[in-house]
Amino acid sequence: MSTMCLDLSMLKDLSLNDQAEVMRTQGEIYYSVKELSEKIDDKILTDYLKNLGEDTRIFRLFYLDGSVQSTIPKFYLDEKDVLHLYDAGPAPKAIKLPLKFVNHQTDYLSAETQNTETIIGRQTFYLEVEGSKAAFTAPVGIKTEYIKAANEKYKSGELIDSLLPKGNGVIPLKIVKYYPRPLKPKSQFEKGEEYQILELIGPDPRYNGTKRFLIQQLNNGEAIGEPVETLGNWSLEKHWNTFKDTPCRVVEKTIKDGNTIVKFALSSIARAS
Fold this sequence. Notes:
The protein is 18% helix and 40% strand.
């Protein structure tokens, strides 16, 4: 194997002129490997990244909570529980390359800014390109349930090494979360629309611990399009806690102080009324 192993996390340290533009517009910019190579003066780095494909979206800048943040490729499971490295685009897509897994590790870190603890995962892999090998390390998305279990043990003073796997080969799939779907804002919900809550994914630290749900839009009980994620509110959480995956319907949509407020009710009740 090549003596060089590139940790993709180091891309987060890049300083790009576009950061000022993202802050000004409160938008986002993402870069393919080829586009990034035109932005930075590091030929060794960009030539190595080309092993992942010149068109692969390798880096993304976006505005969130008053600052510019960044995203890099990350490992997630697909719907068939297969591990893939997903690109850094706004709607992540699997990077279709024959990866060979070398080793993995997990660490328990304290995130002071969030006043909580979290588990981070890392997977090292390599791929063969034109007779040579290129090795990389990339972060792994860890399931919320796994993090919660570790948090509880940590707070009770128990050792949690058993919850922090490390070793050769691929990281245990049971601790890896599914790849993120697009987030549907409340402003895109319309009165009368019907939805089914498929899953309570868990608290999202990026939104002050607001619970995140996987939902499916329905039309007369039939699915429309792909499932999407949305942040919960008191109405959606109440429906889930009471009725679980029984379909619900948007019965009110109002705007107050610039915020969209959506109220849900059982589809059967909403239809009757």
